[in-house]
Amino acid sequence: MLYSLLVVGVFTFLTAVFILPILLIVFTLKKVIHGLCTTFAHQSKKGLVMNHIPVLREAVQKYISLGSGDVVVDATLGLGGHASDMAAAVGEKGRVIAFDQDERNLVEAKKRLESYGNVTFVHSNFRHLKNRISELGIDSIDAILFDLGLSSPHVDDPERGFSFMKDGPLDMRFDPREDLTAHIVVNTYTEAELTRVFREYGEEPMAKKFAAMICKRRADRTFESTAELANYLSFLIPKKYQKGKSHPATRVFQAIRMEVNAEMEVLEEALDQAFELLKPDGKIVVISYHSIEDRVVKRFFQKLERPELTDEAKLLYQAYGDPLVEKITRKPVVPAAEELEENPRSRSAKLRAYKKI
Ligand SMILES: C[S@@+](CC[C@H](N)C(=O)[O-])C[C@H]1O[C@@H](n2cnc3c(N)ncnc32)[C@H](O)[C@@H]1O
């Protein structure tokens, strides 16, 4: 009896002094570790999605419809997501010519695509499409993709000056070899020029007011950083008008970026050259991310669908009135709910695809 009581006593003592605290520590640690793991998993899942999964991946493959041996241009390589699908689709006999004007993206994509021997990397603005392609000894192509705009590394790196959410220098150049920066636009453009930029490229209803106020403030002190400009624009709009809407700087930042990189001018030039390079039955797929960009694409192809509106040069090789392209996507293709959930940055994407006749 005494022996049993002694055993129970010792057991209770050991449990209370050692085992319970140890169990408590283990449970607490487990919870903390689980929490950390979940956070990291969540972040890396997001990072993976944003960095690796290309927008409208399946639709691009469907509409560009590559075959073995095709020569295809990826005009906007980015991190090489679409290019890797293309390299696999055209196979060893085919070729992918991948353009990007941003050297850092090009270097990163090269690493990711190094297992494919059929990709040629071109560090160039796609406005030089025709010249660069002909320098490679190629005179026509089977298909081309434009996945326009920014890539995640641009937005995520404050030093590039694209984001108003993270402070950085007013830069916004896709290609740092170019001279024009956001700093020059914001601090030296006249009020009239700023108004035009904000209206034309940002469809900003407060274009005139923003331009006037920027000029007034910079007479005192120039704008140096993205946060400085974003906060100033935010300060100009009463808080009650800001609720539930995008940040007041959204449209202005988009407009400045488009001006800095001459995006609309470059796009029109490149679409023209792409159309010339395409073989009959060749496909052209364009993903745009805002209405101004989408409108340029839509109008460009509308002219080719109704060639009586196009210039004479194009009519030389097509009977008057015959369409020069066929629309493959009746309506623009947009991301499904699942893609939007995985990659919110795809939310404004619109894909249009055409076939040259
Ligand atoms: C949306 S990202 C492309 C993402 C890519 N499709 C992928 O799967 O990873 C757009 C890329 O096009 C590049 N870009 C934008 N405008 C360009 C231009 N005019 N010439 C060449 N590259 C351009 C940007 O530097 C960026 O890397």
Radius of gyration, whole Å = 27 Å
CATH fold topology of the largest domain: Rossmann fold
**Fraction of helical residues:** 40-55%
Q: What is the N-to-C succession of helices and strands?
A: HHEHEHEHEHHHHHHHEHHEHE
The biggest beta sheet is recorded as: 7 strands, mixed
Overall residue-averaged pLDDT value: 86
* Poorly predicted sequence stretches spanning 5 or more consecutive residues: 24-51
Sheet with the most strands: spatial strand order: 3-2-1-4-5-7-6
Amount of beta strand: 5-15%
Q: Tell me the distance between the termini.
A: 101 Å
CATH superfamily of the largest domain: Vaccinia Virus protein VP39
Hetero ligands: S-adenosylmethionine
* Annotation, overall tally of beta strands: 7
- Quaternary: single chain
User: What is the number of domains?
Assistant: 3
Account of the 3D structure:
The protein is of the alpha/beta class and 357 residues long. The chain folds into 3 domains: 2-40; 57-152 and 263-356, 3-Layer(aba) Sandwich (Rossmann fold); 179-260, Orthogonal Bundle (DNA polymerase, domain 1). Helices cover 52% and strands 12% of the residues. The protein has helices spanning 2-52, 57-64, 81-90, 103-112, 129-135, 152-156, 182-188, 191-202, 207-220, 226-236, 250-260, 263-277, 291-305, 312-315, 337-342, and strands spanning 71-74, 95-100, 119-123, 141-147, 278-288, 325-327, 350-356. It has a 7-stranded mixed β-sheet, sandwiched between helices. Strand 2 (95-100), helix 4 (103-112) and strand 3 form a beta-alpha-beta unit. Helix 8 (191-202) packs across helix 11 and helix 12 packs parallel to helix 13. The relative contact order is 0.11. The structure holds S-adenosylmethionine. The site of S-adenosylmethionine has 20 residues, from helix 3 and strand 2.
